[in-house]
Amino acid sequence: MDTTKRLWWGLSALLMVTFAVMLWMGREIHQQAPPLPSKIVTQSGQVVFTKQELETGRQVWQSFGGQQIGSIWGHGALLAPDWSAEWLHREALAMLEGRAQAQYGASYGSLPADDQARLQAQLRPDIRINTYNGSEDTLVISDERARAIEVVSAHYDSVFSDDPASAHLRETYALRENPIPDAEHRRLMSGFFFWASWATVTERPDSEISYTHNFPHDPLVGNTPTSSSLMWSLFSVLLMIAGIALLVWHYAVSHGKETPLVPPKSDPSLSIAVTPSMRAVSKYFWLVMALFLVQILLGATTAHYQVEGQAAYGLPLAEYLPYTLTRTWHTQLAILWIATAWLGTGLYLAPAISGHEPKFQRFGVNFLFISLILIVVGSFAGQWMAVMNKLGLDRNFWFGHQGWEYTDIGRFWQIYLFIGLLLWLTLMGRALWPALKRRDEMSSIAGLLFLSVVAIGLLYAAGLMWREHSHISIITYWRFWIIHLWVEGFFEVFAVAVISFIFVKLGLVRGRTATNSVLFATIIFMAGGVLGLFHHLYFAGTTTAVIAVGSSISALEVVPLALIGWEAYETWQNGRATPWMQRYKWPIMCFLAVSFWNLVGAGLLGFLINTPIALYFMQGTNLTAAHGHTALFGVYGMLGIGLMLYCLRGLKPNLVWREGLLRSGFWALNIGLALMTVLTLLPLGVLQLEASINDGYWYARSAEFMGRPIIDMLVWMRTPGDVIFACGALLIGLFVASLWLSPGRRREPVGDRLGNEA
């Protein structure tokens, strides 16, 4: 059996084993999730909330933004509190206040430290004990706790109404006035907040650890890091070091054995005949730039809400476009424009790889493009109606705002998008089929490309696996099948296969060498990438097994990045291999940027927050935002731009590119991203980390902390980076537009394709 076949068998076995473990762990999560009782009653028999009321309360929370305004269990937006953490702390203070009045006849805050410590010691076992009766499906709470619920509920009733007493908090949280007009809806949402906080402090049966592994950190109620979090964090570091050592050893003994390939004297890509469907892909790249520019505008607005919570330079913007919507659309557009760039690249390259243009392929490309526009416009309109209280709870799940970060669009639009991805899969498959049937040096790369296309198309079905009232732990599990596996997993395989094809087609790498390198890289990446999903679920109501598997395996995600410098060097060498490669300078530069941000964003900043003990204090802080921005745009965004530029070079081969626009745009994007990370996200995240360790997670996300002058200063310091970044995007957009609107000088004819240009 040759090397290629062994690698294919290894990849197949790896995927079967890891996905089997994924499904088995999902079953465990389903069985061990925090119970949602049929009713919550007091010891005196008063019904506080029913299950239906708790579910309706969650619907209310989702309908006005859900995870896009504050967070639950650390998942969600950075502005506004983590509602589960804040509720827990406020409820504990309310109970301590009641006990202080009863025992000392004074307020809790006025007591000396030793008396406060005595009351805290009394409270912890009472608030942590599990009083859920499984046989009756009932949660019994003390009358004292019911009174505390009333106190905290009154606070949230004020915050989410138009009560002038809480106007300053609404501004700090970037909430528009009277975001939830119905008083009963506010009461029911408070019930959901209570249940979410109850799960964070209540110990699992026969355990001293809460359902969320004592997250969030709050020493007041005994929520401190668990021993398993520390132990598995140490083990993950050890496993990462071992993995890096093995990978370095493999490269040392196997790399550079072949004789260097002599590049061709002319550009082999010029022999690719541009088909009608390939020309039709042009409009995808127009859409990419339009979505990218709108996303940046919404991102700037979202960031500005941290300073003026309800306005933009004095304009009452929140009344028409509140923070919830700007952040929703900003995060969704990030995925949409990057995905559109990659979908367009696939549709362009599939006929190029196979040399085959299937019947009605152009019609399919155009139909998919129209569908993408309908999905964006329709889903965004539904979300605006939901947040502005114009849709109603009954229709919100299907057509409005689901409230789950990155998977916010209504179920109808999710189904439509899934159908669109199946159409893309069909278009790719029928165009690649001749290449898949051939037995040449490119067949394995085509096969791996098609495998990634199948996975991208089918894995989005994970977004359809939950229903409106599914348990939040189960929703979180399936949601990260999309966020992690779809975006961070098989899109990576797709990208590696596409880049390898490009270098093989350009005559810079041997097909067999590229095939084995791609297969080996895919195995290494998937070894940590699939089960690494569980590092997102440490504190989502899951078991200790999730921490063990997630921390150990996610450490392997960093292993391939250990040799990222060599990858960057090879890319740079390929870019300088022959004079005609100057035609591909800027796609190559984008690939170099991908290597850099892979190391910094995905590697260094990713591992910074990956271990359980680190994420325990950092989840939902600006340190996670630093990783998110540098990894999502730095890696996937720059890769999308690079692939787009390669396709545009093929679509417009005879034009002299406006190097000034590309050079300025490229460096502005990268410098702007670096500045916003270094000047704002990292220092702000470090301050939050210190607050989380010293005082508790609730304080690191509180209005008191986020309203400090130094925080305002750090937010304003983001402006230079944002402006430079936006200028870079605008310059890239101008370059793309110039290819059609102002093409300028032409090169000498490069073949019969000149007559085919749009």
Write a concise synopsis of the structure shown.
This protein is mainly α and 758 residues long. It contains 27 helices and six strands. Among the domains are: 38-224, no CATH class; 578-746, Cytochrome c oxidase-like, subunit I domain (Cytochrome C Oxidase, Chain A), CATH 1.20.210.10.
Please characterize this protein's 3D structure.
The chain is an all-alpha fold and 758 residues long. Among the domains are: 38-224, no CATH class; 578-746, Cytochrome C Oxidase, Chain A (Up-down Bundle). Helix content is 66%, strand content 2%. The protein contains 27 helices and six strands. The protein has a four-stranded mixed β-sheet. The chain has a two-stranded antiparallel ribbon with strand order 3-4. Strand 1 and strand 2 form a beta hairpin. Helix 23 (659-694) runs antiparallel to helix 26. The longest helix is centred in the C-terminal third of the chain and has 36 residues, at 659-694. It starts with a helix and ends in a 17-residue tail after the last helix.
